[in-house]
Amino acid sequence: MDVTAREGETVDAGERLRAAVKQCAPGTALRLALDMVLAGHLGALICIGDTDAVLAAGDDGFRLDISFTANRLFELSKMDGAIVIDKGLTRILRANYHLNPDPSLPTSETGMRHRTAARMSLLTKATVISVSERRQVVTVYVDGKGHQLRSVPDIMSSVNQLLVSMQSTRGQLDRTLLRLTTLELDNYVTLSDIAETIYLFEVLMTASEELDSLILQLGSEGKTIAMQREEFIGSASYDYTLLIRDYAADSSEENAAAIRRALHETVNTQLRSSKRVGALLGYEGKGEDSIITPLGLRTLSNVSVVRKGMADKIVDEYGSLQHLLDDIEQNPSRLDRLGVENPGILADSLYRMWGKRA
Fold first, then answer.
1. Which of 322, 21, 291 lies closest to 142, judged by CA?
2. Three-state SS across 203-267?
3. 342 and 352 in contact (C-beta within 8 Å)?
4. Cα separation of 217 and 309, whole Å?
5. Distant-in-sequence, close-in-space partners of 14: CB < 8 Å, separation ≥ 6
6. How many separate domains does the chain show?
7. Among positive and negative, which fits the CA dihedral 163, 164, 165, 167?
8. Pairing relationship of beta strands 44-48 and 82-85 according to DSSP bridges
9. What is the spatial distance between Cα 76 and Cα 82, in angstroms, rounded to a whole number?
10. What does the alpha-carbon distance between residue 84 and residue 48 come to, in Å, rounded to a whole number?
11. Residue 275: CATH number of its domain
12. Last residue of a domain, one of 294, 314, 347
């Protein structure tokens, strides 16, 4: 199998795991059933989807083909064997079903139920859920990988820590961006300034991703948290891309996206390295005190009279924010030709940002 195929399978498995966790989130009938199984101090092995392959890996049991409800799933968990449910969670097809996956399939699980669950998830495309009677935990398996479900109070403890971190980071980032704008207008931005700003963007984006995962696990309990997350993130992702385009040697959107991926994969200690950040931006050998001239996309996009897409046209025309500032008052008709309405307002806005005018 080639690398592309393996990467495709990994992405597919990741998406299927997210979908499986969402199916088991608080507020769903499946989660209600799982909570009832835990409360009843029972164990369970549940296979959802890819039913033909699942049934081919076992025998015996009871043929049911009845509608799915939380109560029925709970009652059927009192029997040994697996419960087989269709992909849409609408029909319970089998109960007390004896699964016999290939014992040579690799797994690090030790308990018999968990080993069977892990191997069934490798053998089939089913979502396999194992409820441990002894340890009182629920584990969801997709493609051989297990994800242990957490209680709402446990998840909320992590959520609150992330929200505090995001609030603090967002405040620090906003202050840093204001300072960066002033430095850009002074044409005195160093590589160190850029690295510091990128680091804060990465901290915020990473916390957002972690919070997004927790929101998924919270299900119906996570709506308010999702709103708080959006409030902290705002336009940060868009501003981050503009910042990278402003300072990258290649300012194309495609290259900016590639740089963002590379930055996101960079370890925390390297993110704080001006040399490493400079190399990713396309500046090999530049020191932290090196002056980097911005295009001005981010700053221009924060001016009200600059419509969406107009910042790119201005940058293409002038080449940099500094050249725009040098020319904006002497030759306003140049901006008129680009379709900028009220060039005077644009000039005043930039000078107010700069602090050169009241």
1. 21
2. HHHHHHHHHHHHHHHHHHHHHHHHHHHHHHHCCHHHHHHHHHHHHCCCCCHHHHHHHHHHHHCCC
3. no
4. 37
5. none
6. 3
7. positive
8. parallel
9. 9
10. 6
11. 1.20.1260.110
12. 294
278: nearest Cα among 189, 208, 206, 209: 189
Spatial distance between the Cα atoms of 82 and 292, rounded to a whole number of angstroms: 63
Q: Would you write out the chain's pLDDT as a tens digit for each of its 358 residues? A: 333 334 445 558 788 889 999 999 999 999 999 999 999 999 999 999 999 999 999 988 899 999 999 999 999 999 989 999 999 999 999 999 999 998 889 888 888 899 999 999 999 999 999 999 888 899 999 998 999 999 999 999 999 999 999 999 999 999 999 999 889 888 899 999 999 999 999 999 999 999 999 999 999 889 999 999 999 999 999 999 999 999 999 999 999 999 999 999 998 888 889 999 999 999 988 888 999 988 888 888 877 767 777 788 888 877 777 777 777 767 666 766 666 666 666 767 776 766 655 4
Q: Are residues 282 and 314 in the same domain?
A: no
Tokens at residue 205, please?
A: 């984006």
Give the domain extent around 18: 3-149
Q: How far is it, in rounded angstroms, from Cα 132 to Cα 181?
A: 56
